[in-house]
Amino acid sequence: MAGDIEVLHWWTSGGEAKSAQVLQQMMELQGHHWHNFAVAGGGGESAMTILKTRAVSGNPPTAAQLKGHDLQEWGKLGFLTSLDRIAQEQQWDKVLPPVIANIMKYDGHYVAAPVNVHRVNWLWANPKVFKAAGATIPTSLDDFFVQAKKIKQAGFVPLAHGGQPWQDVTLFENVALAVLGSTNYKRAFVTLDPKVLNG
Question: Span of the secretion signal (predicted)?
């Protein structure tokens, strides 16, 4: 059944906006009318503030971009709608890896559709800079510092970092994982083992 759909999201930069346009076109091909509610800034922080205000005042948008871990909070508050019917029709349990499918569910029911998947251990690299510096893509934290030194000596900035809190946390997580290794990382941040945390 076609209808008007207000979509709150924070895909506002060049490539992100183009991705949102693709989703909009897909919805409009099905006869829906997409009302674009794009909120720039903060990796979604501003959008989440607006969403919370709208939701608690009884005027939520039809759909909103959420990060996977936020789904559980919104589910507990009763703001999510079951997507089980379409998930069954499109066989999401068969086409989605379990790690993705489980994040899209609340209380065993699909409540979200994945439109992108992020990992926090990405490193964006400029091939021209690496070539000019005679550097190679690092494969470890120690190697990162070796390659960063070459890049700096060639007159380039070896690491660009926005300094926003979510970026600081992401960088910290990656450095901690590289230094501790996966076993001690889990002991430190999952089981909160004082021996690792104080070591």
Answer: none
